[in-house]
Amino acid sequence: MENKIKVLELFAGVGGFRLGLEGWNGKSASSNYKKPLNLNYAVVWSNQWEPSTKVQHASTVYESRFGKIGHANQDIASVEVSEMPDHDLLVGGFPCQDYSVATTLKNSKGLIGKKGVLWWSIHKILSEKENKPKYIFLENVDRLLISPSGQRGRDFAIILKSLNDLGYAVEWRVINAAEFGMPQRRRRIFILAYLQGTGIYEDIKNTSAIEWILGDGTLANSFPVTTEVSLSATELTLKGDIVSISENFNKNGKTGLFENSGLMIDGNVTTIKTKPKYDGKFTILKDLIQNGEATEDFYINDEDLDKWKYLKGPKKEMRTNADGFEYNYSEGGMIFPDSLEKPSRTIITGEGGKSASRFKHVIQTQKGFRRLSPIELERLNMFPDNHTKFDGISDTKRAFFMGNALVVGVIEKIGISLSEKIKVHSSSIKSNP
To answer: What's the whole-model pTM score?
Structure first.
């Protein structure tokens, strides 16, 4: 443990970040857990809490796979920062919420955001830890870059400004896993931050922003990109304090200011639209399905098939609302059944259960139409088979876990690049400022 990169895992779910950084039984997700993963990460403390349910299913699965030692199943807002061990890397897939600032406290280090917004729990840890983590690795939905609708990008600007005030440089990228050969079209923003005084921070300071974004950065090393020659970067400075940004950033702006890739250091932001540069093998849905192994429960009865086709089909019809008002309703059709020759659509939390749905996956096999099994959903997120199987955990709940999860292979590839950069600078890392 002495030479390991110590990790604090927040909003852990069923352990996607941990699988990507530690592997499973020492094996790599990108090799389908067949080849060794020799990374230097060790999770020293984790937290998982689901506020909307009494039974903590995700935490139960997490503990069954990784053990109870160092795992807290309680509301993160109620955990004292002093109870969390010092760590080198803080990771987590935090929810996309309204990050606006309610008020500040005079003569206080911290600030008060809206109650229950989990970004402020991360902020509290970074503010109160005497030995701040040197690195931060976060995941969120890509709409974070354009939220809320009245101040496009305000929420992300608050996060960037918060990290800047705490002494971090930040790089980000929106990554669609399928565009880099992974089995699911799942688009998420990944955020990396580096504390002032680390070798990586100094590298950023001594590198042009565009060179870092397109070539030298951790994200560029793990997921290469290019950009159109005609495109130029947008540069902006985050002026004022967090309250000012919360109230005024891009007020009434119709479009966002942040592109899918960017870098922020000393409050100066450079952002540019990039596109993937990948020429490797692509994984398609057909590669992952359980041929002949799915049970009868997942097959759609002939009498229910018309209901599925209706929900997934295009519609142009008159409907009546609860007040008796008639209106024209229209929507486009969904592909039915889902193509086996492409990476899967994004898994949703409502993927489980027998009821007909517009959004659940349906595939056609020689035996008929069926929904995806829990194992297939796990494979689409690059989890080990039956990772979420546990007594008392229903198939519907297992599907919910995968709708909330991330693609483990993305974490693994970024983790490899980050580990290599840390290793290069391990002899020159300065003490925390």
So the answer is: 0.93
